[in-house]
Design a protein that fits this description.
four-stranded parallel sheet, alpha/beta, 4 strands, Rossmann fold, single chain, 7% strand
C-alpha cells in the first residue's frame, strides 16, 4: 500500500478501523480555515484545503486520524480580505458582490459576539473529539488569524475538561519552518500557492496573474507568486510534517505535564 493510499479521514472509516487506529495512535487532527479571496489564481477555500491536506500528510506519517475541516463560523468583519484588504473594492467587483455584504453590521451580531460564538464552537468541537477517545489534539489553522481564536479556545477547553486532560496544540505550519524558507507564510503568494499546488493540485491558474510581474495581484502577496511550483510546496510540506511529528511525539510522551493549571500550550 502506498503512503498516499492510507485512509486517515475519520468520517470515511468504519468503527473497527477507527478503534484500531486510535489504539495505535490516539491523536486527532482538526483542520480549520475559512472561505476567503486568495487571488484570481487560487480557489477561495485555499486556507482550509491547505490545512486539511497538510494534516492528512501528518497523520499518514505520524498516525492518528483527521477530522472533517471547519470552513465556517469565524468573524466575517475582521482579518478578512473582502472586509479589510486595501483592495477590497476590487475584490468585491471581481466577485460580483455588493461591498455592503462585508461592512460592519451585515452579520447582525457584533464583532465581539461573532468572536465568542466561534470560540464556543471550537470548544464544543474539542469536547466532542475528546469524547471519541483521543489523547492529543492538533489543530491546524489554515487562516492565520484563527491561530489566536483556536489558542483561546484551547485555554478555555483546558479549564473545562475533566482529567485526564487532552492537550490541544494549535499551529499553522509556516511558523514551524520560517527559518528555512523564503518566502514563508504569505497570502496567496508563492508560499501558499505552492503548498496547495503540491497538496491538492489542479485548482490554480497562474495565467490569471498580471503579465507584468511588478504589478501586485489583487488580494495576493507579490513575492514571486508567478514562480509558484509544486516542488517548493513539497519541500515546505515535508519540513512542516517533520516538525509536527516531533511535537506530537513530545506531547504523547509527556501527557502528565498537561494535566494541571498553567500547563504549557
Amino acid at each position: 500500500m502506498k503512503n498516499t493510499d492510507i485512509q486517515v479521514q475519520y468520517e470515511r472509516l468504519r468503527p473497527d478501523q477507527i478503534v484500531a487506529e486510535r489504539q495505535k495512535c490516539p491523536v486527532a487532527f482538526l483542520p480549520i480555515g475559512t472561505i476567503e479571496w486568495h487571488g484570481e489564481h487560487n480557489p477561495v477555500g485555499l486556507d482550509t484545503l491547505k490545512s486539511h491536506a497538510l494534516l492528512i500528510a501528518c497523520a499518514r506519517k505520524i498516525g492518528g486520524l483527521v477530522f472533517p475541516p471547519l470552513y465556517y463560523g469565524e468573524n466575517r468583519e475582521q482579518a478578512l480580505m473582502e472586509a479589510n484588504a486595501a483592495d477590497k473594492e476590487s475584490i468585491a467587483q471581481k466577485m460580483n458582490l455588493n461591498r455592503a455584504n462585508f461592512k460592519s453590521g451585515y452579520m447582525v451580531e457584533t464583532v465581539s459576539e461573532q468572536n465568542r460564538n466561534y470560540l464556543s464552537l471550537l470548544v464544543h468541537i474539542f469536547h466532542e473529539i475528546k469524547s471519541l477517545g483521543f489523547k492529543v489534539l492538533v489543530v491546524g489553522a489554515g487562516h492565520y488569524p484563527l491561530l489566536d481564536h483556536a489558542r483561546a479556545a484551547a485555554a478555555v477547553f483546558h479549564q473545562e475538561q475533566a482529567k485526564p486532560k487532552m492537550p490541544v496544540w494549535v499551529m499553522s505550519g509556516y511558523e514551524l519552518v520560517k527559518e528555512k524558507f523564503t518566502p514563508c507564510g504569505d497570502h496567496a503568494g508563492k508560499w501558499e500557492t505552492s503548498l496547495l499546488m503540491y497538496l491538492d493540485s489542479g485548482m490554480q491558474d497562474l495565467s490569471l496573474l498580471p503579465k507584468n510581474n511588478e504589478e501586485r495581484p489583487v488580494g495576493s502577496s507579490n513575492n514571486g507568486v508567478e514562480n509558484s511550483n509544486a516542488e517548493f510546496g513539497q519541500q515546505a510540506v515535508d519540513a512542516i510534517v517533520e516538525a509536527v511529528s516531533k511535537k506530537v511525539d513530545y506531547l504523547m510522551k509527556n501527557l502528565k505535564q498537561y494535566q494541571g493549571h498553567g500547563a504549557p500550550m
